[in-house]
Amino acid sequence: xxNEYNLNSTDFQSLKTASKKMFDMIVTRLNVNTAYVAKxxxxxxxxxxxxxxxxxxxxxxxxxxxxGSYCRHIFNNVNNEMHTADVNHYEITRNLDVTPELGIxxxxxxxxxxxxxxxxxxxxxxxxEEREFSEEDVEYLKSMADLLSHIIELDKTKFNxxxxxxxILPITNGVSILTLQGVIDDQRANKIxxxxxxxxxxxxxxxxxxxxxxxxxxxxxxxxxxxxxxQSLQLIGAETIITGITPEAALHNISSQHIQDLKAKTxxxxxxxxxxxxxxxxxx
Length: 284
What we know:
Blueprint: H1 13-30, E1 34-40, E2 44-52, E3 63-65, H2 70-76, E4 81-84, H3 98-102, E5 106-113, E6 119-127, H4 135-161, E7 168-172, E8 175-183, H5 186-202, E9 207-216, H6 221-235, E10 239-243, H7 247-254, H8 257-261, E11 265-267, H9 270-277
Parallel strand pairs: 8-9, 9-10, 10-11
Antiparallel strand pairs: 1-2, 1-6, 2-3, 4-5, 5-6, 7-8
C-alpha cells in the first residue's frame, strides 16, 4: 500500500492538538470510552492521538499490521465507514487477531482524508460494552473527520513553509548550487523554476549543481519538475550536475523514462560535482 504521507508523526502537532479537543465531545456524544485518530503507513496503522475516558483501551503509538486492522475494511467500504454493536459477532471483525487483543465490543470508524480527498487514516471510537450506532451517529463522526481534514492540510502547509525558499548558493564565477529540501508541490515547483532560471540568466551561470539529499518524495511531481528544469537550463546554456540522490529518489527516477533520458551528470556528492567541473577541494 502506497504511503501518501512521508511526514513523521511528530509533524502533525496541529492534528494531535485539535483531535484531543474534539475527542471530549465525541466520546460524550456517542457514549463511548475511547476515540482516536490512526495514521496510515506503508504496512501498518498507527494511533496518532487518542482519548480513553475511563480506562485505557488503545494508547497513542499503538500499531497494527494493515491487513489485520479494522481500518482496511473502512477503506474498502463504499461508504468509507464501518460500525458494529459487537466486533466479536460481526463477520468482518470477529476473526481478526486485534479483536481479542483489544477486548472491545462497540466500534465505529470512518475514513479520514485531507482536503483533496487523499486518505490519511481513520477517526474511530470504541467501547468495552455493546453500542448500537445510528446513521446519525455515523454522519456525526464523518462531520468531525471533515473538520480534521482541514487541520491535516494546515500541518502539511506548515511543514512545506519551512522549505518555500529556493536556496541558490553561488560558489564561484559561473557555478551555483541549488539545494532542494522538503516536499515539492505545485507552488514550490513554479517558484523553483522561476528563481533558478532567473538566477542562471542574470549571473551567467555555466554549471548548476542540484543537491537532492534533503528532498522528501510524496508523489511523482518532483521527477516532472526535474525534467523541465534541466531541459530549460540546457536551453539557456547551463549544464546540470545532480548530486545527493537518495534511494527513495532513485526508485522514483527509475520509473520515469524522461529522467533516464536527461543529459545531466550525476555524482555522489558535492566534491564529485566540483571535480567534474574542474575544481579540487584542498585542506589548508
